[in-house]
Amino acid sequence: MKKTVRFLPPIHELQKDPRFINLLDAFTIHEGHLTTMLKAVLEETRTQILAETWNGPLPDSVDFCEDLFNILQKKLHAQFQYTLKKVINGTGTILHTNLGRARLSNKAIEHVVETAQSYSNLEYNLNEGERGSRHYHVEALIKDITGAEAAMVVNNNAAAVFLVLRELAANKEVIVSRGELVEIGGSFRISSIMEESGATLVEVGTTNKTHLFDYERVLNENTAMVMKVHTSNFKVIGFTKSVSTEELTILTKTRDDLIFYEDLGSGALYNYQQHGIGSEPVVSEVLKRGADLVSFSGDKLLGGPQAGIIVGKKQLIERLKKNQLARVVRVDKMTLAALEGTLMDYLLGESALKNIPVVRDLLTTKEEIKERAIQFINELQKRTASYSIRLAEDESQVGGGTMPEVKLPTFVLVLQHHAYSAEKLASKLRTEHNPAIIVRTQKEETLIDLRCITKEEENILLEALVSM
Description:
Layout: H1 11-16, H2 18-27, H3 31-50, H4 64-79, E1 87-89, H5 106-117, E2 124-125, E3 130-131, H6 136-146, E4 150-154, H7 157-169, E5 173-177, E6 183-184, E7 188-189, H8 190-197, E8 200-204, H9 212-218, E9 223-229, H10 245-252, E10 259-265, H11 283-288, E11 293-297, E12 308-312, H12 314-322, H13 325-328, H14 333-348, H15 350-353, H16 357-363, H17 366-383, E13 387-399, E14 402-417, H18 422-431, E15 436-438, E16 440-442, E17 445-449, H19 455-467
Helix pairs in contact: 3-4, 5-14, 6-14, 7-8, 17-19
């Protein structure tokens, strides 16, 4: 087989082949780019022939060039496809980290498109006709919604934590309960972020119990901050004790230079507890209880784009804005537009909140999902006899490291395809359909939760299942 490499056609001959010309026209690319790709395919083929791993026609056969151009065409298709793609989330997990967490509202999307398609006053004061600040665009909205004196936005909540510690506690001590030293997604740990910031971590209490006297015992002249971290991604249940925001506020007010900072992580601007959903503290309530600074995420319970939002005392926020790192972690115009569009619905009040997909999906009842699911089953059974299908009670998850104890009652479609296993059906929906459809499998059955699927996506899902 190795001797056959001498029959490999030269590039200049392949460039004259009608199939080369057809690919140039079909993909409207530069000849030099296509030639480079063709050389790569030819070299890869040569390597496989020499290694005796080539399974295609040999270079001295009439089918070799046809196979070569087929490989080239597949590589072109792959190269000119976006790798970041829309998917349909049939898992029932609302803030699915692997699937992009919060989906944006129509208002947020429209504002992003408008801002991206044109020039904007990102850093331009229209009234004064001079340079402005990008902090301006959402600060007033955040202040109105949370009751904070001031606010700023950075690119994620980990950056918010780092900036706060770097500016306000570098080379000084920060007291944190040992039970609050959380690890968030991607192995980022509060303790590691603190170390990188230059602040010195002082752990107090135990994993399950921390008392006020634990904080009092370690306070000294080098203490810059008391930090409380909301354990949004896990719950310690049983013999536990933690110190409240109110208690820590009283403690830190004994010194003028001592800062009380609370990292809420998930960042609820809406009180889900009134619907019996979780126990997440609302940002505005934490500020009322006396926290000097609060930080939280934009793409979790808030339902907006990835961002870290810092609210609190004006004097402290102004210091953060002036720190050189503020430019390193700042957000772009599209993030600000998406956040502004999302916050606008919070400002409009209860009637507008269901415009935000995260809020809508969290508040959707199992009865509403059951009604939709029954209609879907009826339609699917009219269109195809390829499935055994039933309705079953189940639980949806909030996801994104948020409200781990909350299970949202739901109904799921339980399918068995007469020709495919559950794993095979899930794979075909994921890999052979555009947009990809992500489902769950359990005990040789395919489960689909309609909680995170819109009416438009229901129609796409129906057509996909019928075509399988």
